[in-house]
Every structure is written in structure tokens, then in C-alpha cells.
Design a protein that fits this description.
single chain; 217 residues; 8 strands; 16% strand
Length: 217
């Protein structure tokens, strides 16, 4: 949701829903450490509960940015391990990190050691990835129910071409009942949300909430 869920979008969404947890657009560690921090981190207090989503792959840099997020008053730090864009791939983070579970575990531990707020992970469907990362201290996994195909498909195609595999997400919850598993991807109706909640702990809405915001009411 880069360039989409900015503070103005999130404030509008909060007017429509009082309970949904809102997420920032993905902010790279470089942008926070070397750029305009207020531009990336400032938000309206009505947005709570609010998570700061980070993009990066260097534990020390992510830890520094997580600390910034906590100081600015965010309720959660989320590491994006699912974005398939070429720009993100060139930075060796996003969906590339799905093949680097041990590195992600190091990143999560580094962030968790610096903040008292939850550190969560958003990713694509891979079971062994969750098992490895959970050992580092993250208890919440937001699972986009598609594989990421990094060669040959555009980011838009990666949101549409790989089939949705909700059963894989359900299985993650059965395999890790002590973890909070949140399903993401292709959800468009209240009936779908109710069905998914029979199997997982939560549902994240992305582009549908942006294109059809009054559904949140």
C-alpha cells in the first residue's frame, strides 16, 4: 500500500471504523534514518490503534527505526516480508526475505530488544518461515495467502495471478495454535470475513478498503 495509506487516508478510515487496526504504508529504513522523519512518522492521534510498517533487512537499522516508531507513539511495529515490487527487491527486502527466515528472525529479535510494543510480521505463505521467525519473539503473523513470484510477474500480477490458498493459512493456525494468525488477500465481503474468522484470529483488508471505504462502516 505504498503511496496509498498515508495519514490522510488513515484518518478518513478511522472516521469510518473505530476498532480496526490501521497500518501505515511501508516505510524503508533508509527513508527514516536519512530522510524527513516527521513526514514519514507523523500521524493524527485519532488513528490509534496504529502500526508502523517497515521495510528493510539490516537488523541494526530496523532496530533503530522500531525505536523511532515507539518514541513517536505507534502501537505496533510491522516488518514487511511480502512486497514483491522490483524496487523493494533491489533493496533485498520485502518478499525476498521469505527465503531468509534466519535473517528475519535476527531482524525481529533486534527490534523486539529495543521496544516494548509488539513486533509483527507480514509475509507470504511459507510454513517453515513462521516456525523460525516465531522463535525470535514475534507472536503475530499477517499472511498474504499467495506465493510471491519474483521473476516474470509485476507487483499487480503478483496480487492477482498466483492462486489464493486460504487453506494454507488455516493450516498455519492449526500448526501454531499459540500464535496470532491474520489472513490477508482477496477478501471482499463480510461473509468472507466471518468464514475466515472460523479458522484464523483476524483478517486484514488492503485495496478493497481503499477502493470501497464505506464497507468499513
Amino acid at each position: 500500500m505504498m503511496d496509498w495509506t498515508d495519514r490522510h487516508c488513515r484518518t478518513f478510515h478511522r472516521l469510518l471504523t473505530k476498532h480496526t487496526r490501521l497500518y501505515t504504508e511501508m516505510v524503508t529504513t533508509g527513508a527514516l534514518l536519512h530522510g524527513d522523519q516527521p513526514r514519514h512518522l507523523d500521524f493524527n492521534n485519532v488513528e490509534h490503534p496504529l502500526a508502523l510498517q517497515l521495510g528493510g533487512s539490516e537488523p541494526a537499522e530496523l532496530a533503530a527505526c522500531a525505536k523511532l516508531g515507539a518514541l513517536w507513539g505507534y502501537d505496533e511495529i510491522n516488518l514487511n516480508c511480502g512486497c514483491p515490487s522490483e524496487r523493494v527487491q533491489r533493496g533485498s527486502f520485502g518478499a525476498c526475505l521469505m527465503a531468509e527466515a534466519a535473517l528475519v528472525a535476527d531482524c525481529v529479535k533486534a527490534m523486539s530488544d529495543k521496544v516494548m510494543i509488539p513486533v509483527t510480521v507480514k509475509h507470504r505463505i511459507v510454513r517453515d518461515f513462521v516456525g523460525t521467525v516465531a522463535e525470535s519473539g514475534s507472536n503475530v503473523f499477517i499472511v498474504h495467502a499467495r506465493n510471491a513470484i519474483l521473476k516474470g510477474l509485476s507487483p499487480k500480477q503478483n496480487r492477482e495471478v498466483p492462486p489464493l490458498k486460504y487453506d494454507f493459512v488455516y493450516q498455519l493456525k492449526r500448526d501454531f495454535p499459540h500464535l496470532t494468525i491474520v489472513l490477508n488477500g482477496g477478501v471482499r465481503t463480510n461473509a468472507e470475513i466471518e468464514h475466515h474468522l472460523l479458522h484464523v484470529d483476524g483478517v486484514m483488508l488492503g485495496r478493497e478498503a481503499y477502493h470501497n471505504p464505506y464497507w468499513l462502516m
